[in-house]
Amino acid sequence: EAQVTQNPRYLITVTGKKLTVTCSQNMNHEYMSWYRQDPGLGLRQIYYSMNVEVTDKGDVPEGYKVSRKEKRNFPLILESPSPNQTSLYFCASSSTWTGYDSPLHFGNGTRLTVT
Amino acid sequence: SQQGEEDPQALSIQEGENATMNCSYKTSINNLQWYRQNSGRGLVHLILIRSNEREKHSGRLRVTLDTSKKSSSLLITASRAADTASYFCATEETSGSRLTFGEGTQLTVNP
Description:
Chain A is mostly beta strands. Helix content of chain A is 0%, strand content 50%. In chain A, a hairpin with a 2-residue loop joins strand 5 (42-51) and strand 6.
């Protein structure tokens, strides 16, 4: 089944404790992206990747890191999480970035709470 | 930055009625897409309309795009309780390589 898999689904952590949210897609997609969703703010892009070894900042990259060493994986790293990073996170992918016939496929989300 | 703005923020209707949601955006786009999100779940792509298209249909969905007014509408006909969800428009700007989402319309369809 074609899908984007995020783990974990729920995560509670403390300020400053490094964490990684994994994202994997099995559709051979070139483009991958991370969003965070907050009430009243909609979805905001954190980082995106056009292809392996190519990553770029989105609208809200501060406090996050990503890597794209393999086509299928795009982990999101929080080196020193803070309470303002409490949010619902989504990974998404699409086959290319022309957009014309390349809608985004989303994972089921990771709800992160930082205390 | 937020590109798309949906209107209304919330909509409550009875089963069988039609639901119309609107989206306005600010810059030139390659395409506009609509997504649906069930509570706390990932977004699911519904329909994509290109900048050179004016109307598109998919099942009970009808999307229009007016590039002169920088606006789009999503019509769901003969709504069902299962259509209850949040609906987001997203735009691919001509200048960028990403999709920018609005804040969404929360649709509630009462049985």
